[in-house]
Every structure is written in structure tokens, then in C-alpha cells.
Amino acid sequence: MNLEPIKDMEVVKSILTDSEMWARIKEDDNELEAFEVPDNDELLWLGIYTDDGLAGMFFIHNLNLSTIQLHAHILEPYREKYAKEAGKLVITYFAHVMSDRINKLIAEIPVCYPDVYHFSLKNGLKDEGINRASILKDGEFMDQHRLGITKQEAIEWLQQQS
After folding, report:
1. Do the Cβ atoms of 92 and 159 come closer than 8 Å?
2. Residues pairing with 126 in the sheet
3. Residues of 15-34 as b/e, b for ≥16 C-beta within 10 angstroms?
4. Are strands 43-50 and 67-74 parallel, antiparallel or unpaired?
């Protein structure tokens, strides 16, 4: 398995608009027909390439010069087989490939997805609190877990996994 940037936005769109994935990531009033993938040099779409094909991707964008936000989009048929290894690969990418200027990786996960929350904790991220009432899902403003990991914490976590 390896991670490689995806440059074809139609490939990105096909992952994000997969029916199961779209139901998980969309906010209320997001219309599939109107959805366009943001595409610029500030955004990184990392494909998760396996022997079984493209299993999904990670979306990374800067919040500031020192902090990135990570969004995991692993397609349902591949989650059980590849999610654990993919998580370790993206933490490795953050720790060893990204600029040393980037010191922090964060993720925000709606509380209705405990599987993603626990996946993130198992991949070394630490719970940093709740972003209250910050995403509209099923007619309700829902809380999101905020998790994070510093570059040094990522390096130490990876050493523990060896």
C-alpha cells in the first residue's frame, strides 16, 4: 500500500460522492448535483493505493503555517482490510514527508461517527475537546470531537508501532 497525490479531480469526486461516503460527509442542504471538488495548490488529495485498487484518500489542508487538518475518506469495502495500515501511512507522511514547518495535525469528527473517532485515537491522535454544535446533520447542529497530534508525538507513536 502507498499514498500518492491525486491530481484528477474526477477521481476525487468519485470517492467523495460514493453513496455511502457522501451520506457520511455531507452536511444538510449539500446537494450532490451541485457538488464541486475544490482544487488548488493549497489542497492535498492523497490516494490510498492498494493491490485491490484505490481504497480511498486523505484530504489535507492548512489551517495556518504550522497546522494541517486531515479528513479520511476510506471507501467502505476497503475499511476493514486497509484502514489500519492507511492510518499509519498518513501519520508517517505527516511525520516524515511534510515540511518541518508543519508541527500539528488535527481532525474534527462528528460525534455520530464513533468508529472514525476511535480509528483516530488508535492512530495516535489525542482528544483535544469538543467543537460544539459545529456541523448540521439530520436537522441538528451536532458536536464534533477535536483530535490532534504534534509531529514529535507522531514520531514517537510510530516508533512504538515498530
Report:
1. no
2. 148
3. bbebeebeeebbeeeeeeee
4. unpaired
Output the CA–CA distances (angstroms, integers) from residue 71 to 43, 45, 105, 147, 161, in the order listed: 11, 10, 10, 12, 22
Q: Cell numbers at residue 117, please?
A: 473517532
For residue 25, which phi and psi values (nearest 5 degrees)? Answer: -95, -20
DSSP type of residue 8? -
- Per-residue pLDDT tens for 5-45? 999 999 999 999 999 999 999 999 999 999 999 988 899 99
The β-bridge relationship of strands 43-50 and 2-5 is: antiparallel
Question: What is the CATH architecture of 2-161?
Answer: 3-Layer(aba) Sandwich (3.40)
Q: What are phi and psi of 21, to 5 degrees?
A: -65, -45
Instruction: Measure the CA–CA gap between 108 and 120, rounded to whole angstroms.
Output: 10
Quote the pTM value. Answer: 0.95
Neighbours of 118 (CB within 10 A): 11
